[in-house]
């Protein structure tokens, strides 16, 4: 029997390229779970579970009693997003797509709020799951990018309409290939993409005041 993979998201940019790669290169039984809003006609041969991750009952209806060998999360951005998944199904290995911003942003940076949310999600997943693989990519570039922020010129990626290079940067093809290889290997830990070391070790506080504080994040090992 083929191993089962549940992809949370999977129809936008990184998730889309990843699902394409999984379907082309493996015999995994892939199922997508998302709201059915972004590109709902993609991957018609793959089962789709439609739900809002903010809604516990919706997640429970779709996931209760199910078991997955691999869970790959492209759409987790809040406490509810994580809790409503980990409390409603069983899985062996959880891969979470975070961001380099959790290590490279600072309080005045426009990405800091997002980074704190991502870091809090990392903490929740690591607390709930034994086998966890976290990716912290830099700016991801390549096909299916819906943002239109970047352009490739003179052998480098730059911000559209400027001479400023994109840093840290990682190609979506490289990232998704590495993800699949490490997932199938059962790799755990934190993997950086596009940069080697954090700018600073920052203390993470949950973005919502009702959550408890938690300890400073220690620098991750680069794989």
UniProtKB/TrEMBL annotation:
Annotated region described as Disordered, given as residue ranges: 201-223
InterPro entries tied to this protein: NAD(P)-bd_dom_sf
Gene3D superfamilies attached to this UniProt entry: NAD(P)-binding Rossmann-like Domain (3.40.50.720)
Protein name: NAD dependent epimerase/dehydratase family protein
